[in-house]
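**User:**
My hope is that you can spare some time for a protein that puzzles me. This is the protein in question:
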Amino acid sequence: MRFSLYNKVVKSIEDLEDNDTCVQKLCKTYPELSPATLESIYSQWIQRKVKKSYHKITQCDEVSNYCHQYQKAIENGEPPGVILRLAKQLRFSPAMTAKIILEYHLNVLGESKGFFIGATRSKVNKLLRDTTLITDRDLSYEVYLCLIQDDTYGPFADSMKHSLGHEYEFLLKNKLEEKNIAFQDENVLRSRGYDKTPDFKLDIPIAIDGHVVNWIESKASFGDEENHRNYLRDQFWSYWNRFGPGLVIYWFGFIEELDEHKEKGILIKDHMPDNITFMNPLGK
């Protein structure tokens, strides 16, 4: 995908204002792009939006106001989904909105409501992972509704992302085995003392499009500018330093202009290529 098309997709997302049918509308507008690609771009956009607005949303006075809105709605007998509706009003993550209100209750209303006292990170995360531990029945259900409706934040979303990542690593592993490419996975490498490791280190290098590949990293996401820049800094150049040139697979596509380091040793693809050149150890 070219930068120009990516920018059009992002502009469309901004115009749609992150409503519940955004991805479906994107699929109709950009039929040439896969739903998985559009879903990934949308999720990345949501993450950036939450990061930008988090400081404002979590200001002390604002949090107190949200929580009093929630409490009043519960007392007035409003139907379930109070925090969901508040999150939509704020144009903020449902899971993060629920977390903010939960922390407030733990800190301010904990003693009167029978909660654990003090919203430590471990306590909050424990309650988010198992909302049945929240002793206030209404809040427990409200938090649960927010978590299952949020595809980007929260323990359910994290589990889905983790599962998706494993699914594509397994797919890549099968493809390497089908092509008789010997490798060591990250578990083996870590057992040998490596702290930062790619998903697969090849026992014998291969060449793709004339570029040597010693390792392959699988990313079950779209490769946009910000994420790719962060991956280069935190992962890819470290792999390059340890193992030499390698291949990164963004399974849901990437911005073509980002494939600018292949001459230096980092190649980008959106699939495992078939045009592989294998090393001949006999030199024949």
Remarks:
- Residues 155-178 form the longest helix (24 residues).
- The chain has eleven helices and six strands.
- The chain has a mean pLDDT of 91.
- Residues 3-149 form one domain.
